[in-house]
Amino acid sequence: MPKKISFEEAFMELEKIVNSMESDSLDLNKMLGFFEKGIKLSAKCHKELNDIQSRVVTVIEKNNKFIEKNGLDIK
Amino acid sequence: MDIKNQNIFSVSQINNQIKYYLEKNYSNIWIKAEISSYKLYPSGHAYLTLKDETSEVSAIIFSQYISKLNIIPNIGMDVLVLCDLSLYTYKGKFQIKIKNMYVAGEGELWLKYEKLKQLLQKDGLFDHSVKKHLPKYPQKIGIITSSNGAVIQDILNILNRRAPYIKCYIFPVPVQGSGASEKIVNAIDIANRHGLVEVIILARGGGTIEDLWSFNEEKLIRSIFNSSIPIVTGIGHETDNTLSDFVADYRAPTPSVAAEIIAVDKIEIIQRLSFLQDRLILNCQKNIKYFQHRIDLLASRVMLYKPKLIIDNFRQKLFKKQYLLELYMNSIIDRKITKIENISNKLHLLHPKKLLKRGYVIATDKNNKLICKLEDVKVNENIKLQLINGSITTKILKKESRDA
Hints:
The structure holds two protein chains of two kinds. By secondary structure, chain A is α+β, with helices and mostly antiparallel strands. Helices cover 53% and strands 17% of the residues of chain A.
């Protein structure tokens, strides 16, 4: 599995795998490969969903550079 | 009066020509007036009378425009109407076809609004075909709005409740007054240049057309159009239609709805995920069962064609052939034997000795040559006669032909 894959891509990939399992006749090895990959993707999605960090960042621009400040920055 | 050189029109001709003239020269015009009568018919069209201090004129709003009107018409209202002039040719009646209607006091801005809307529409900025798709499950979203007030709090509350997995980049901007649209354009630009987010919410609370005017500035609308990051607008209330809403990739009626549309509820995603996972496992099991079944089936077929069975089968066939072969051979031999016996019997009967027994003799000359005809012997010649048990030699005394 590629390293940097977004949640959305992972989810779509999982959907694609399940759909093709349902529609195509697969050989056993290919199916087991799909299964393994599907389980990994599912685990990844779960992990990302539960991965709660400091999630709000305020973007402020100063001298043509932008600065990220954690939290809602109210002047 | 000489009418020969005059152009004579029929009624239809004159009506049609005037209709053509009016529609050609008086389309998309603005009229300021007071509504003196208004009636909505079951057909869905509305008929009304517009007046000023000295004159009045009747007007119609066709059903397809009624729901899109900027205001709900009422008797006594001072309005600014956007309309086309025409002539109802069957009755020769002058007609005003209203396409939109605004409160007269806000006329200036609405005039600008309509003009810009038409221009941008012509440029294709509002086409549905050019709208970008929103990401289904964004993880990083940008929020362009004021950092003060209820709007940002509402959005953050919704995101926090539904989708704590989303990272929010807030771009604080003024959302009204001079310079506001430039600041918003700048924020869109930063987000695009740095590729910070997958989707942007552009939001503001409700207000009058003056309050919301920043969202009708051409520069901002073009910037929304040119953004490669999809933009969802949640500006004002449901009834507020800014040009930013028209150009946005998705128009949410309010800021809160914008947040709800962007952020799929975590619980819902988990449900979808576990559904997918179930299907994954189920399919795998189903497939394995299918293969097992096929293996069983093939195995039973292999048993059917076991080598021993094949050999036995051939052996049996071979025995049968062998038996038949022997049968044919014997019958052929028997037939030959019978034939030989017949011949031998015949031969036996023809044997010369058998004839001697019955009194025949075999006559030969001195050279032991058989005598068959008269010409074979001469008179006085000695010949030998063979009998059954010996022979005698004798002399020819006389030759006598049978014919004589």
